[in-house]
Amino acid sequence: MVAELGLFALILALLLAVAQGTLPLIGAARGDVALMAVGRSAAYGQLFFMALAYAALTYAFVTDDFSIAYVANHSNTLLPTQYKVSGVWGGHEGSLLLWVLILSFWSAAVATFSRSLPREVLARVLGVMGLIAIGFIGFTLFTSSPFERLLPAALEGRDLNPMLQDPGLIIHPPMLYMGYVGFSVAFAFAIAALIGGRLDAAWARWSRPWTAVAWAFLTIGIGLGSWWAYYVLGWGGWWFWDPVENASFMPWLMGTALLHSLAVTEKRGGFKNWTVMLAILTFSLVLLAAFLVRSGVLTSVHAFAVDPDRGLYLLAFMAVVVAGSLTLFAWRAGKVGLGGGFSFVSRESALLTNNVLLAVSGAAVLLGTLYPLFLDAFGLGKISVGPPYFEAVFLPLMLPLLLLLCFGPRLRWKQDSPTEQLWRLRWIFAVSLVFGMIWPLFVGSWSFLAGIGAFLGLWIIGSSLKDLVERLLPRAGSRQTLGTRAGRLGRSYVGMQLAHIGVALAVIGITFVLGYDDERDVRMAVGETVEVGGYGFRLDSLERIQGPNFEADQATVAVYRDGQRMTTLRPQMREYFSQDQPMAHTSLHRGFFRDLYVNMGEPLPGNAWVMRVYYKPYMNWVWAGVILMGLGGFLAATDRRYRVRVRREEDLPDEAGNLGGTSGVQPGGAA
Amino acid sequence: MQPFTPPVPGIRNEVLFATHAVPAVHPCPDGFLEVPKPMKLRFLIPLFAFFALVGVLWVGLSLDPRALPSPLVGKEAPDFDLPQLHQPDARFARADMLGKPALFNVWASWCVTCRQEHPMLSYLRDQGVPVYGLNYKDTRSDALRFLARFGDPYQAIGFDEAGMVGIDYGVYATPETFLIDRDGMIRFKHIGMITPEIIENKILPLYRQLEAES
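Predict the joint structure of the above. Result:
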């Protein structure tokens, strides 16, 4: 009964999406207010029925309704309740339902928070989102319904893949999808602007907070995925350049470019075509990601089951959406002005370089990801493209980007003096160069990569902090207190600096962990000690333990540093009752400067095991960096100027520093 | 093509300036104020590039990314001589499969996929295909229990406890299946479970062809 209710709700959501995707667009074209107003109600209705469908599936999971095929395949009576709830998105059909639910959520969010938008713009944005919803709800209904019945019902479910039974996996997909689907809002704004012919600064400002929020979610989502891979897969790796990882990374790179390009469009009216193109490309890459993950064209550890029908549907949907938007772009782009001119050294050119580098990195990742497919499609053989390619192509592109990151936020719009800016940063440059080169010596032997990483990281942090301090310290002759100046910084500006410092932390962490991690695969009998990264690991005991839906061998490993007992790690080798293969469960000790990590391999005769012991320096810096980037994105999205009504534009304080973001008063003079 | 006209002409300039943060230095006329130009060809480049991508992806859909061409296909099947699974004293060697095309299936009792695949092998045997097995990295008792429970479609099974023959055959995961012609050449290899589609589209047609050759 509950499955039919869910299915019925899904069908109603589709019908509402059809209403949302057509009527407001017709209304906007005809100037019909009543039709335009349908968009908002349809968006709320669609969210209501999607939530109902989703609740129905969750209910079926929690009540172990194995007469539903999807539940029988992804749950089990013994599964702990939190994993029954998260198991809803443990497979293709359910995760798609979550995707659509989030899409409806974004539609409703636009309907709620964009009351100040002109009626036509809101109608077009909601209309475009409705069209996207038609595609995805249709995909769910026609090819991947999670409500299919299994007759006769199974007595017991096949269980959720044990790798997915993990707290990280409870939040990773929702975050990731919030990011992916969130870019549909930026896309809808871009298409609405193209339809309306109004590619102006107002459009850029409306889409900026949405883009920032989507980007922040995607950042956190990718970070969580990596964090999960790091300790669940137990290989000590955290980024594998796997096609599915790349699929999420490409929209992130493009979305990052979009975020920066929007700044130019908002503040200077420039890069309009380019910004629209980036919005289209970012969402196209989201669709491509869905296609790559759900069609089975590429092999990956994360890919869902292969089904050519689904692939064909998604490809056709992607072709319609992207070709449609690119045609619209080709039609309208020629009529858009170019915006203000700018000189070679200016914030515009810094942001342009940022965009070019990010776009090229995105293209390089795309090429590497699809290259095996290209060769195969042309019958030229089978290859796989691995980390060596991505590292060789990606790192050289990141170097100039990171160098630029120190200057960009300080440069003035239109024109600036390169020597002046360099001169201002000379001390920071010198100090970070010296400390950056010395720092690696405290971690291990000196390496070029770690030295460069530390230098760039310190330089970015140093120049960000200097900029912050200069803005906070009262200028000569001014009566403003520190408090008022802090209050006037603007969340968008603080968010940007936070995100940039996050990038710096991640760069330091990544280069250090690449350069200095250490791992050992050793036979350990009870009482034996192994030395890794200056830490002693002693296997104290082995015991058999009982979990809710598994049994496990557990090792107790004491960790020593300089003869002092530091902590105890308890890795397990779990045998889930529903699975044939045992699964290792890592035990991890996190620290500010390093992670220690023990994993069980296989049992050996004589009360011994093969143990994998890892030393991961500065790993937490990577996660901290990701969190700061995400926080920065959220903070920037809440900036005051996005909440001010359009019609009251003139009430905005006229001091540019107040507007924050990538605009603002330079320390040396007015903008 | 319709030249593009602004939907609500007239109030443009107020809107334009009101929405810019720094109107004084803003030199940019907005797009819709310019004289409409014909569509430029360069704006179509992204569209064409995208169509090319879709074409390749469409071809990619019909390909199986997991189908790895084996360097062994077209080569002699590696020689081996193993104890039989059922009778440890008797031997099973490569030579025993020659004279007639045959299917050589690598399996193990610990392999779940092999269990799912098992009925396909019985079907192939019923179709007249001689099926031989390589029991890979298994224990004799587990393997025999597996056959007792799910049936035994094999004419003979080599017991490769250490997995050495598996290495010669390039096995990296069970099940793997080879089609060997009467002269001992490997003509087809499949990694993973053989499905009804693979049987109907690949194995049986190729087997009939090889049978006709001999």
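Residues 1-160 of chain A form one domain.
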